[in-house]
Amino acid sequence: MTSILLPTDFSQNSENAIKYALEFYKDEDCRFHFLHCYPPVIFSYEYQIEKGLVGKNIHEVIQAETRERLYDFAFSMMGNYGNNQEFEIEVIKGFLPDQIAHVTSQNNIDLIVMGTKGETGSDRVVFGTNTIQVINKRCCPVVAVPGDYKFNGIQNILFPSDLNLSFSYNHLKTIVKVLELHQSKINILHISLKGLTSTQRRHKVLLKEAFSDFKTNIVIKEDKNITDIIYDYQQENESELLAMINNKRMFFENLFFKPTISKIAMHLSTPFLVIPA
Question: Which numeric CATH code is attached to 156-272?
Fold first, then answer.
């Protein structure tokens, strides 16, 4: 059974990501794990008096109230968008990226689906700090969903690759699962600077074999500007999911942390699957 982790801070961004996940896996036998983390804080004595909390364990009170809120939220989301799948909730004191790594390990999570920004995210920010940190924990594949994106099937997956990574089943199984579930087509995009090396040619063959049961298209472009090539390709060839392997060379950061909007515009409308190397 597939286990999906759904972090939420009760913001519209996180709610939209959860809707996306529930519709994405509507026909799949899976378990959804709703998670809310609240930071460790110290409350003033005046606040404790105002809220009638003097003499009580404040964190136990907060956790009980938050569990009730999270359960009501999860029950409502599952009723409106789920398909009688299992779900569970968890409320933890701590910082989200660290707790997600812990929960992922303890609950055998296969995939994390979260919004690109949290409650206070600016419209000028593509990825919030929590999302970046969770992705760079490399504990599990992550789908980051833009705040206004509505699920409408997965017909095409765009998979940029430098073809230097020696692919394994663990790298590709998440993509294969999506291809199986939605009968999608995968477009493998390679940006070549000097033609393919022998290693790249070998990995190209391996990828083709790995996706042999599905519609596969391998496109090789020659250009030095990787981000512009990916952006232009997306404009000409619509895709509903951008998939990438986050290896130690930090291709992910090179793509999305440049100062110019042209470098990151492609992600503003496309969910992004990041697979840890």
Answer: 3.40.50.620
Distance (Å, rounded) from C-alpha 108 to C-alpha 91?
A: 17
∠ CA(265), CA(270), CA(271), 5° rounding?
Answer: 130
Cβ atoms < 10 Å from Cβ of 56: 11
Strands 142-145 and 272-276, by their bridges, are: antiparallel
**Contact in structure between 11 and 262 (CB atoms under 8 Å):** no
CATH class of the structural domain 2-145: alpha beta
List, for residues 106-125, the tens digit of each pLDDT value: 999 999 999 986 554 444 44
Domain with CATH 3.40.50.620 in the chain: 2-145, 156-272
Of 131, 17, 11, 144, which Cα lies nearest the Cα of 81? 17
Separation of alpha carbons 189 and 149, rounded Å: 23
pTM score, two decimals? 0.86
Q: What span, in angstroms and rounded, lies between the C-alpha atoms of 86 and 32?
A: 6
Whole-angstrom distance, CA of residue 277 vs CA of residue 272: 16
User: Does residue 209 sit in helix, strand or coil?
Assistant: helix
